Amino acid sequence: MIGIRFSIAAIAAALMILAGSDAGRAQQAYPARTIVMVVPFPAGGPTDIIARILASALQQSLGQNVIIDNRVGGGGNLGIAYVARANPDGHTLLFTSTAIAVNPGLFANLPYDPIKDFAPISELVNAPNVLFVRPDSGFNTIADLVAKAKAAPNTLNYASPGVGTKSHLTGELLKLRAGIDIQHIPYRGGGPATNALVSGTVQLASVALAPVEPLIKAGTVRALAVTGATRWYSLPDVPTMIESGYPGFVSDTFNALFAPSGTPPEILALLVKEVREAMKRPDAIEAAKKFGYQIVAGTPEQMTARLRTEIAGVKELVARAGIKPEN
Protein backbone atom coordinates (compact mmCIF):
# COMPACT_ATOMS: atom_id res chain seq x y z
CA MET A 1 0.00 0.00 0.00
CA ILE A 2 2.82 2.34 0.83
CA GLY A 3 4.35 1.67 -2.58
CA ILE A 4 1.04 2.34 -4.31
CA ARG A 5 0.52 5.60 -2.37
CA PHE A 6 4.06 6.63 -3.28
CA SER A 7 3.44 5.86 -6.93
CA ILE A 8 0.20 7.85 -6.99
CA ALA A 9 1.89 10.79 -5.24
CA ALA A 10 4.79 10.67 -7.67
CA ILE A 11 2.45 10.62 -10.65
CA ALA A 12 0.42 13.51 -9.23
CA ALA A 13 3.59 15.54 -8.68
CA ALA A 14 4.78 14.80 -12.19
CA LEU A 15 1.42 15.86 -13.63
CA MET A 16 1.60 19.10 -11.67
CA ILE A 17 5.07 19.80 -13.05
CA LEU A 18 3.91 19.07 -16.57
CA ALA A 19 0.83 21.24 -16.12
CA GLY A 20 2.98 24.07 -14.84
CA SER A 21 5.33 23.63 -17.75
CA ASP A 22 2.43 23.67 -20.22
CA ALA A 23 1.02 26.81 -18.57
CA GLY A 24 4.39 28.48 -18.84
CA ARG A 25 4.62 27.59 -22.50
CA ALA A 26 1.08 28.88 -23.05
CA GLN A 27 1.93 32.21 -21.44
CA GLN A 28 4.96 32.56 -23.68
CA ALA A 29 3.08 31.67 -26.88
CA TYR A 30 2.91 35.16 -28.34
CA PRO A 31 1.43 35.97 -30.72
CA ALA A 32 -1.37 33.49 -30.16
CA ARG A 33 -3.64 34.95 -32.84
CA THR A 34 -3.87 37.68 -35.45
CA ILE A 35 -2.26 41.00 -34.49
CA VAL A 36 -4.39 44.05 -35.30
CA MET A 37 -2.44 47.20 -36.08
CA VAL A 38 -4.77 50.19 -35.77
CA VAL A 39 -4.01 53.12 -38.07
CA PRO A 40 -6.12 56.17 -37.17
CA PHE A 41 -6.04 57.53 -40.74
CA PRO A 42 -7.51 56.50 -44.10
CA ALA A 43 -6.17 53.63 -46.15
CA GLY A 44 -3.69 54.70 -48.79
CA GLY A 45 -2.32 57.64 -46.83
CA PRO A 46 1.36 58.01 -45.85
CA THR A 47 0.98 56.51 -42.38
CA ASP A 48 -1.10 53.63 -43.69
CA ILE A 49 1.50 52.84 -46.35
CA ILE A 50 4.35 52.61 -43.84
CA ALA A 51 2.17 50.55 -41.49
CA ARG A 52 1.57 48.01 -44.24
CA ILE A 53 5.29 47.76 -44.94
CA LEU A 54 5.86 46.95 -41.27
CA ALA A 55 2.87 44.58 -41.07
CA SER A 56 4.20 42.53 -43.98
CA ALA A 57 7.63 42.19 -42.36
CA LEU A 58 6.22 41.30 -38.92
CA GLN A 59 3.92 38.70 -40.41
CA GLN A 60 6.99 36.86 -41.69
CA SER A 61 9.10 37.21 -38.54
CA LEU A 62 6.36 36.48 -35.98
CA GLY A 63 4.65 33.75 -37.98
CA GLN A 64 1.20 35.21 -37.40
CA ASN A 65 -1.19 37.34 -39.43
CA VAL A 66 -0.85 41.10 -38.96
CA ILE A 67 -3.76 43.13 -40.31
CA ILE A 68 -4.41 46.87 -40.58
CA ASP A 69 -7.55 48.38 -39.06
CA ASN A 70 -8.12 51.95 -40.32
CA ARG A 71 -10.16 53.65 -37.60
CA VAL A 72 -10.63 57.16 -38.92
CA GLY A 73 -12.04 60.23 -37.18
CA GLY A 74 -11.36 63.15 -34.89
CA GLY A 75 -7.98 63.99 -36.34
CA GLY A 76 -6.75 60.53 -35.37
CA ASN A 77 -8.27 60.60 -31.90
CA LEU A 78 -10.86 57.88 -32.54
CA GLY A 79 -8.29 55.22 -33.43
CA ILE A 80 -5.79 56.32 -30.80
CA ALA A 81 -8.43 56.16 -28.07
CA TYR A 82 -9.56 52.71 -29.26
CA VAL A 83 -6.07 51.27 -28.69
CA ALA A 84 -5.75 53.05 -25.33
CA ARG A 85 -8.75 50.99 -24.14
CA ALA A 86 -7.71 47.73 -25.80
CA ASN A 87 -6.67 44.58 -23.94
CA PRO A 88 -2.91 45.00 -23.28
CA ASP A 89 -1.91 41.57 -24.53
CA GLY A 90 0.11 42.64 -27.56
CA HIS A 91 -2.55 41.71 -30.10
CA THR A 92 -3.84 45.26 -30.61
CA LEU A 93 -1.23 47.88 -31.50
CA LEU A 94 -1.30 51.52 -32.58
CA PHE A 95 0.57 52.74 -35.63
CA THR A 96 0.23 56.51 -35.68
CA SER A 97 1.79 59.66 -36.99
CA THR A 98 2.82 62.77 -35.08
CA ALA A 99 -0.90 63.25 -34.30
CA ILE A 100 -0.38 61.53 -30.94
CA ALA A 101 2.03 64.34 -29.99
CA VAL A 102 0.25 67.20 -31.77
CA ASN A 103 -3.34 66.56 -30.66
CA PRO A 104 -2.77 67.32 -26.95
CA GLY A 105 -2.11 70.91 -28.04
CA LEU A 106 -5.06 71.06 -30.45
CA PHE A 107 -7.85 69.41 -28.45
CA ALA A 108 -8.99 70.56 -25.03
CA ASN A 109 -10.45 67.19 -24.01
CA LEU A 110 -8.71 64.09 -25.30
CA PRO A 111 -10.16 60.61 -24.63
CA TYR A 112 -6.67 59.30 -23.85
CA ASP A 113 -3.37 60.31 -22.26
CA PRO A 114 -0.54 59.91 -24.79
CA ILE A 115 2.01 59.28 -22.03
CA LYS A 116 0.09 57.21 -19.47
CA ASP A 117 -2.05 55.11 -21.79
CA PHE A 118 0.66 53.83 -24.14
CA ALA A 119 3.92 51.90 -24.11
CA PRO A 120 6.15 53.18 -26.94
CA ILE A 121 7.76 50.48 -29.08
CA SER A 122 9.68 52.45 -31.70
CA GLU A 123 9.75 55.52 -33.90
CA LEU A 124 9.95 53.78 -37.26
CA VAL A 125 10.40 56.58 -39.77
CA ASN A 126 10.24 60.33 -40.11
CA ALA A 127 10.01 62.85 -42.91
CA PRO A 128 10.56 66.61 -43.12
CA ASN A 129 8.22 69.22 -44.50
CA VAL A 130 9.27 71.54 -47.29
CA LEU A 131 8.64 75.25 -47.81
CA PHE A 132 8.31 76.00 -51.49
CA VAL A 133 7.27 78.70 -53.98
CA ARG A 134 6.68 79.12 -57.70
CA PRO A 135 9.83 79.57 -59.81
CA ASP A 136 8.59 83.02 -60.91
CA SER A 137 7.98 84.22 -57.34
CA GLY A 138 11.25 86.10 -57.10
CA PHE A 139 12.12 84.19 -53.92
CA ASN A 140 15.26 82.08 -54.01
CA THR A 141 15.80 81.71 -50.27
CA ILE A 142 13.92 81.91 -47.00
CA ALA A 143 15.69 85.24 -46.44
CA ASP A 144 14.11 86.61 -49.65
CA LEU A 145 10.66 85.57 -48.48
CA VAL A 146 11.13 87.03 -45.00
CA ALA A 147 12.42 90.33 -46.42
CA LYS A 148 9.33 90.65 -48.60
CA ALA A 149 7.01 89.76 -45.73
CA LYS A 150 8.60 92.41 -43.52
CA ALA A 151 8.55 95.05 -46.24
CA ALA A 152 4.88 94.42 -47.02
CA PRO A 153 3.12 92.94 -43.96
CA ASN A 154 -0.06 90.91 -44.49
CA THR A 155 0.38 90.70 -48.26
CA LEU A 156 1.68 87.13 -48.45
CA ASN A 157 -0.13 83.92 -47.64
CA TYR A 158 0.78 80.27 -47.37
CA ALA A 159 -1.04 76.99 -47.93
CA SER A 160 -0.99 73.90 -45.73
CA PRO A 161 -2.83 70.55 -45.76
CA GLY A 162 -5.09 71.76 -42.95
CA VAL A 163 -5.33 73.33 -39.52
CA GLY A 164 -3.30 71.47 -36.92
CA THR A 165 -1.19 69.49 -39.36
CA LYS A 166 2.55 69.46 -38.83
CA SER A 167 2.88 71.44 -42.07
CA HIS A 168 0.59 74.15 -40.67
CA LEU A 169 2.61 74.27 -37.47
CA THR A 170 5.77 74.58 -39.57
CA GLY A 171 4.35 77.71 -41.19
CA GLU A 172 3.36 79.18 -37.83
CA LEU A 173 6.81 78.44 -36.43
CA LEU A 174 8.35 80.30 -39.36
CA LYS A 175 6.13 83.31 -38.65
CA LEU A 176 7.14 83.38 -35.00
CA ARG A 177 10.84 82.77 -35.53
CA ALA A 178 11.12 85.28 -38.40
CA GLY A 179 8.80 87.86 -36.88
CA ILE A 180 6.57 88.06 -39.95
CA ASP A 181 2.83 88.10 -40.52
CA ILE A 182 1.57 86.02 -43.43
CA GLN A 183 -1.91 84.56 -43.72
CA HIS A 184 -2.55 80.84 -43.40
CA ILE A 185 -4.83 79.28 -46.03
CA PRO A 186 -5.76 75.71 -45.01
CA TYR A 187 -6.66 73.10 -47.62
CA ARG A 188 -7.94 69.55 -47.40
CA GLY A 189 -4.67 67.73 -47.91
CA GLY A 190 -1.22 68.25 -49.35
CA GLY A 191 -2.37 67.81 -52.95
CA PRO A 192 -4.85 70.71 -52.94
CA ALA A 193 -2.36 72.89 -51.04
CA THR A 194 0.31 72.19 -53.65
CA ASN A 195 -2.12 72.86 -56.50
CA ALA A 196 -3.00 76.22 -54.94
CA LEU A 197 0.66 77.17 -54.99
CA VAL A 198 1.23 76.00 -58.55
CA SER A 199 -1.83 77.90 -59.78
CA GLY A 200 -0.70 81.11 -58.06
CA THR A 201 -3.53 81.24 -55.52
CA VAL A 202 -0.97 81.39 -52.70
CA GLN A 203 2.65 82.56 -52.60
CA LEU A 204 4.10 79.89 -50.30
CA ALA A 205 3.23 76.32 -49.37
CA SER A 206 4.23 74.08 -46.51
CA VAL A 207 3.56 70.36 -46.98
CA ALA A 208 5.22 66.99 -46.46
CA LEU A 209 8.22 66.61 -48.75
CA ALA A 210 7.47 63.28 -50.48
CA PRO A 211 4.67 64.29 -52.89
CA VAL A 212 6.38 67.58 -53.77
CA GLU A 213 9.84 66.16 -54.50
CA PRO A 214 9.06 65.25 -58.14
CA LEU A 215 7.79 68.79 -58.74
CA ILE A 216 10.97 70.23 -57.22
CA LYS A 217 13.16 68.04 -59.42
CA ALA A 218 11.09 68.94 -62.49
CA GLY A 219 11.41 72.66 -61.78
CA THR A 220 7.65 73.11 -61.40
CA VAL A 221 8.18 74.56 -57.92
CA ARG A 222 11.21 75.92 -56.08
CA ALA A 223 12.08 74.55 -52.66
CA LEU A 224 13.33 77.21 -50.26
CA ALA A 225 14.12 74.88 -47.36
CA VAL A 226 13.42 71.50 -45.83
CA THR A 227 12.59 71.25 -42.14
CA GLY A 228 14.65 68.23 -41.12
CA ALA A 229 17.78 68.30 -39.02
CA THR A 230 19.89 67.64 -42.12
CA ARG A 231 19.52 68.06 -45.88
CA TRP A 232 17.35 65.49 -47.62
CA TYR A 233 19.47 62.80 -49.25
CA SER A 234 17.92 63.18 -52.72
CA LEU A 235 17.75 66.99 -52.69
CA PRO A 236 21.32 67.91 -51.72
CA ASP A 237 21.01 71.49 -53.01
CA VAL A 238 18.04 72.42 -50.80
CA PRO A 239 19.14 73.89 -47.45
CA THR A 240 17.57 73.19 -44.09
CA MET A 241 15.86 75.85 -42.02
CA ILE A 242 18.81 75.60 -39.65
CA GLU A 243 21.18 76.48 -42.48
CA SER A 244 18.81 79.27 -43.46
CA GLY A 245 19.50 81.05 -40.20
CA TYR A 246 17.07 79.45 -37.74
CA PRO A 247 18.94 77.32 -35.18
CA GLY A 248 17.00 74.34 -33.90
CA PHE A 249 14.23 74.73 -36.48
CA VAL A 250 13.25 71.10 -37.01
CA SER A 251 9.67 70.18 -37.85
CA ASP A 252 9.23 66.66 -39.15
CA THR A 253 6.52 64.04 -39.11
CA PHE A 254 7.17 60.70 -37.46
CA ASN A 255 5.39 57.36 -37.67
CA ALA A 256 5.65 55.21 -34.59
CA LEU A 257 4.30 52.00 -33.05
CA PHE A 258 2.73 51.83 -29.60
CA ALA A 259 1.11 49.18 -27.43
CA PRO A 260 -1.50 49.81 -24.74
CA SER A 261 -0.03 50.57 -21.33
CA GLY A 262 0.20 47.43 -19.21
CA THR A 263 1.37 45.17 -22.02
CA PRO A 264 3.68 42.51 -20.49
CA PRO A 265 7.39 43.44 -20.64
CA GLU A 266 8.36 40.23 -22.42
CA ILE A 267 5.88 40.94 -25.23
CA LEU A 268 7.10 44.53 -25.53
CA ALA A 269 10.69 43.34 -25.67
CA LEU A 270 9.88 40.90 -28.47
CA LEU A 271 8.01 43.55 -30.44
CA VAL A 272 10.82 46.08 -30.03
CA LYS A 273 13.35 43.54 -31.32
CA GLU A 274 11.27 42.37 -34.27
CA VAL A 275 10.04 45.83 -35.27
CA ARG A 276 13.49 47.42 -35.26
CA GLU A 277 14.95 44.53 -37.23
CA ALA A 278 12.06 44.63 -39.71
CA MET A 279 12.60 48.30 -40.49
CA LYS A 280 16.31 47.76 -41.13
CA ARG A 281 15.68 45.26 -43.91
CA PRO A 282 16.80 46.50 -47.34
CA ASP A 283 13.30 46.16 -48.79
CA ALA A 284 11.79 48.20 -45.93
CA ILE A 285 14.46 50.90 -46.31
CA GLU A 286 13.86 51.09 -50.05
CA ALA A 287 10.08 51.20 -49.62
CA ALA A 288 10.31 53.94 -47.00
CA LYS A 289 12.54 56.03 -49.26
CA LYS A 290 10.10 55.56 -52.12
CA PHE A 291 7.40 57.24 -50.07
CA GLY A 292 9.63 60.01 -48.76
CA TYR A 293 10.64 58.70 -45.36
CA GLN A 294 13.93 57.91 -43.72
CA ILE A 295 14.32 54.97 -41.34
CA VAL A 296 14.78 55.68 -37.64
CA ALA A 297 13.95 52.34 -35.95
CA GLY A 298 14.60 53.90 -32.55
CA THR A 299 14.32 52.54 -29.02
CA PRO A 300 11.30 52.88 -26.70
CA GLU A 301 13.31 55.27 -24.53
CA GLN A 302 14.05 57.50 -27.51
CA MET A 303 10.38 57.49 -28.50
CA THR A 304 9.29 58.41 -24.98
CA ALA A 305 11.74 61.32 -24.88
CA ARG A 306 10.63 62.55 -28.30
CA LEU A 307 6.95 62.27 -27.40
CA ARG A 308 7.38 64.35 -24.24
CA THR A 309 9.45 66.99 -26.04
CA GLU A 310 7.06 67.14 -29.00
CA ILE A 311 3.94 67.50 -26.84
CA ALA A 312 5.47 70.36 -24.84
CA GLY A 313 6.76 72.10 -27.97
CA VAL A 314 3.45 71.89 -29.82
CA LYS A 315 1.50 73.19 -26.83
CA GLU A 316 3.83 76.17 -26.57
CA LEU A 317 3.63 76.87 -30.31
CA VAL A 318 -0.17 76.60 -30.36
CA ALA A 319 -0.42 79.05 -27.48
CA ARG A 320 2.02 81.55 -29.01
CA ALA A 321 0.39 81.32 -32.44
CA GLY A 322 -3.07 81.86 -30.98
CA ILE A 323 -4.50 78.61 -32.34
CA LYS A 324 -7.60 77.78 -30.32
CA PRO A 325 -7.87 74.12 -29.22
CA GLU A 326 -11.04 72.28 -30.15
CA ASN A 327 -13.32 70.93 -27.43
Structural notes for this entry:
- With 327 residues, the protein is an alpha/beta fold.
- The chain folds into two domains: 32-126 and 253-321, Bordetella uptake gene, domain 1 (D-Maltodextrin-Binding Protein, domain 2, 3-Layer(aba) Sandwich); 128-226, D-Maltodextrin-Binding Protein, domain 2, CATH 3.40.190.10.
- The protein contains eleven helices and ten strands.
- Strands 1, 2, 3, 4, 5, 6, 7, 8, 9 and 10 form a ten-stranded mixed beta sheet that branches.
- The radius of gyration is 24 Å and the shape is globular.
- Residues 1-6, 9-15 and 17-26 have low confidence and may be disordered.
Instruction: Tell me the Rg in angstroms.
Output: 24 Å
| Main sheet: strands, sense, barrel | 10 strands, mixed
Q: What is the β-strand count? A: 10
CATH superfamily placement of the largest domain: Bordetella uptake gene, domain 1
| CATH architecture term of the largest domain | 3-Layer(aba) Sandwich
Derived from helix and strand composition plus strand pairing, the structural class reads: alpha/beta
Choose one word for the global shape: globular
Low-confidence stretches: 1-6, 9-15, 17-26
Strand content: 15-25%
The SSE string, one letter per element, is HEHEHEHEHEHEHEHEEHHEH
Can you tell me the CATH class of the largest domain?
Answer: Alpha Beta
**What is the count of distinct domains?**
2
Helices and strands, with pairings:
Elements: H1 2-28, E1 35-39, H2 46-62, E2 66-70, H3 77-84, E3 92-96, H4 99-106, E4 118-133, H5 142-151, E5 157-160, H6 166-178, E6 183-186, H7 190-198, E7 204-208, H8 209-218, E8 222-226, E9 252-260, H9 265-278, H10 282-290, E10 294-295, H11 300-321
Parallel strand pairs: 1-2, 1-3, 5-6, 5-7
Antiparallel strand pairs: 3-9, 4-7, 4-8, 4-9, 4-10
